[in-house]
């Protein structure tokens, strides 16, 4: 049965013009960066790996990105940039992250993370000055406040007390800040109230060129991941900051972080998929190069399985990015679940791919095989490690009981545009981003997807297997609802650090991943026959179900083979292993 027979209202004739334009910009960037495997390419993997070994950024490639106008992708269109939607930004950034996560973080995406508070709550003058800075190739650094379970990036914070003339006196020391020595603006989440409350921090937009005294630049900090000299520190001692540096209202820092970090989390997950794409290409090269006989069967399952996982991760990340535009006040918990789950799945994928690469993975500076070693080190830094996981759990866990009581099996499914390839969406407006509202549109989508597929259960074949898997995840959601209803009210015996609650958040995030896969499959318009067929979704859901321990039917005949055939086809035709299957430079 064709996809359109199950959900004809989700068909779409071609991509919206803005998505087509974003893909064209990504293709131009891919071409400018050149063949990553060419040892003579000054912007290729050989040079990027060598710069990493020297613990310095690849200055020539960063300048190439400046000259290519990539900085405009981080600036809202109303201020002269090209940023309209987060999902389109992710597409444009993928050529950079396929080559090097550290390059993407060092050049620009962290400037967006810093500027997001300005886009959300800044004055017109603050937005204009920040936009002009970034459009001119300048950088902004985000200076995080301290959180529980802190690592070096999230440890320590600055305090800002009232200063002369209605300004602030900024004090404190923070040793690890990305791009601190290279930025022309600091967005500081400073403590302005010693009490532990939601109003304890404020955001300050600091221009280092205007600081006359009271600031010390600390030396570079060596790191295992992103070793290119990106991290150094700052120390302030009663440093005078003008009153007009305040972004938003006094005490609004925590709320701004909760709202704007949604975008950061979804973008990190999406770009991480692109990074693992490169490692999968390395593994397929090992499995297919210089072979006159068919690929060894022992590699069929891991290659097809990792590819299916990448599509599932891309589906989850893309749905969340699109939701930021379409449902901006309802994406808070989903964004945390995406950032929580996708990096974990990708780390598992890297372990599987390491078994295929074998000893070649020790060829650290070889363009064909060195990506695994570097990404194993870089990915935890990109995701903020355990501290990033704990921060996402702190969003999800307090909402589980509310979701179980008010949302699951009660809420209506989201608009079909959430899943449609090329559907026109509103521009992302940071000012509209909300904090957890007690709803769950993706769980509602899962329930309705299973209902639509119920008619084909028991008929055999891949579509019936997909229907069985969909129903298995709905059953798991029912079981999760009962367990979450029993969670005590917070403030009693329950705790965010309770391992049982962390297990529930794990299961919940996997259910949302399954919902994203089903919604993405249903949203296909037939333009890509492989994605319109159910094989990839069946394999992806089977692997997610295996992690949950839910009953998973045997893979139908030909399912694994179809996915593996697509893996090899994309490798041989130089296509990416994501939902866009974009053409790669060669």
Task: Summarize the structure in words.
The chain is an alpha+beta fold and 586 residues long. Helices cover 52% and strands 8% of the residues. It is built from 18 helices and eight strands. The protein has helices spanning 3-6, 17-33, 45-54, 59-67, 86-99, 101-121, 124-135, 253-288, 300-326, 332-357, 371-382, 385-406, 441-453, 461-485, 499-522, 529-532, 535-548, 559-572; strands at 140-143, 159-162, 168-178, 185-191, 201-206, 215-218, 231-241, 246-247. The two termini are 37 Å apart.
Q: Largest sheet, described in full? A: 4 strands, mixed
Indicate the low-confidence ranges by residue numbers. Answer: 1-14
Q: How many helical elements? A: 18
Residue-averaged pLDDT, rounded?
91
List keywords for this structure.
586 residues; alpha+beta; four-stranded mixed beta sheet; four-stranded antiparallel beta sheet; 18 helices; 8 strands; 8% strand; disordered N terminus
Question: Helix and strand layout, with pairings?
Answer:
Layout: H1 3-6, H2 17-33, H3 45-54, H4 59-67, H5 86-99, H6 101-121, H7 124-135, E1 140-143, E2 159-162, E3 168-178, E4 185-191, E5 201-206, E6 215-218, E7 231-241, E8 246-247, H8 253-288, H9 300-326, H10 332-357, H11 371-382, H12 385-406, H13 441-453, H14 461-485, H15 499-522, H16 529-532, H17 535-548, H18 559-572
